[in-house]
Design brief:
By secondary structure, the chain is α/β, with parallel strands linked by helices. The chain has two domains: about 10-230, Spore Coat Polysaccharide Biosynthesis Protein SpsA, Chain A, CATH 3.90.550.10; about 230-330, no CATH class. It is built from eleven helices and twelve strands. The chain has helices at about 25-35, 55-65, 80-90, 110-120, 160-165, 195-205, 235-250, 255-275, 280-295, 305-315, 315-335; strands at about 5, 10, 15-20, 45-50, 70-75, 95-100, 105, 125-135, 140-145, 155-160, 180, 210-225. The strands form two sheets. Strands 3, 4, 5, 6, 7, 8, 9, 10, 11 and 12 form a ten-stranded mixed β-sheet that branches. The N and C termini lie far apart (about 85 Å).
């Protein structure tokens, strides 16, 4: 076996990292996709169940007993929460590389780990790489490509730096496809409360090297009602801005334009979300809070910001909407 060693301490080349909670309907498919990997190196599979209330832990334990040389399983007696469980599990990984996989997603290509390791070994400038993925809509039993605008599986490669990671949309490097260098993993104190650990980790990693997207489908992202990303509210968007601010200071205040642009967009997105989600006094209170947040965090970094700040955050937009509504109402009364 062609394994990675440091001194006398043996390390697998790859640690596959899965954290899970209440994934009983999906966890078998997740584990099977890892165990089918064909590699010329050893890899370990580290799975941590965060005190699931269903049979997830029992199912994982059955696999661990069947594959003791491959699977390292931990079950938390008390629920730690997504961030804490993720951080602890990542730090338990021993490989030169770590492959990420949530407990409800799964891999479809038995050569996924091998070709990603080969790529990373020959691209020292990359902190991590990811691949194409299919989206599976659980309720509809339908698949769709993660990036329908790209040719299917042409093996083309795109490279991204921290500037692009501050603005991850519309392009998406699927978390469940990522292989990263373990030596670059760092969890600053604010990480414990970061919104979406995968986004926070991507930003930290791309401060240390490029991200590569390989257009080859190797995995499936399962979309269902329990997805964390499906329940984004205006409070969640506020936390995006806080994450970008933390990363900006963590970087030593580098990449000002990209970081501050991302913060601006998050503050603006929060306001739009408030206007859509809330009504009455709750809406007014949330809009005022958003304006105060904008005074603290919004920066004029482009021409559009010069107009956008007073229009949205000084209630000009709300005043225009109110006057328009009043004019329409009066015209109806006259009619």
């Amino acid at each position: 076996m062609n394994d990675y060693k440091t001194g006398n301490y043996f390390q697998p080349m790859v640690s596959v990292c899965t954290t899970t909670y209440n994934a009983e309907p999906y966890i078998r498919q997740t584990i099977d996709g890892v165990l089918m990997q064909q590699t010329n190196f050893d890899f370990e599979y580290v799975i941590a169940d965060d005190a699931s209330q269903d049979r997830t832990a029992d199912l994982i334990r059955d696999y661990a007993e069947c594959y003791p040389e491959k699977i390292r399983f931990r079950r938390n007696e008390k629920n730690m929460g997504l961030n804490a469980n993720f951080m602890k599990t990542m730090l338990e990984c021993r490989g030169k590389y770590i492959a990420l996989l949530d407990g409800d997603d799964y891999w479809t290509d038995p050569n996924k780990l091998q070709f990603q390791v080969d790529f990373m070994e020959s691209h020292a400038e990359c902190a991590f790489c990811g691949t194409a993925s299919q989206l599976y809509y659980q309720d509809k039993n339908e698949f769709s490509p993660g990036h329908p605008e790209l040719p299917v599986d042409d093996d083309s490669i795109r490279y991204f730096g921290i500037e692009e990671m501050y603005h991850p949309f519309p392009f998406w490097i699927p978390t469940h496809s990522i292989l990263l260098r373990r030596e670059y993993v760092d969890f600053p104190p604010w990480f414990l409360n970061a919104v979406f650990v995968d986004r926070a980790l991507r930003l930290i990693l791309t401060l240390k090297g490029n991200a590569a997207y390989i257009n080859r489908t190797t995995c499936v992202y399962r979309k269902h009602d329990s997805n964390v990303s499906k329940h984004i509210t205006y409070q969640t968007i506020r936390r995006y801005a806080e994450l970008y601010r933390n990363v900006y200071f963590y970087s030593g205040k580098r990449y000002y334009q990209s970081a501050r642009g991302a913060i601006n967009e998050a503050v603006y997105a929060e306001r739009l979300s408030i206007r859509q989600e809330l009504r009455g006094w709750k809406k007014i209170k949330a809009l005022c809070s958003n304006s105060l947040f904008a005074f603290r965090e919004f920066r004029i970094i482009s021409r559009k910001d010069i107009l956008r700040f007073p229009y949205y955050f000084l209630f000009v937009n709300d005043l225009v909407d109110w006057l328009s509504h009043l004019v329409v109402k009066q015209s109806h009364n006259v009619t």
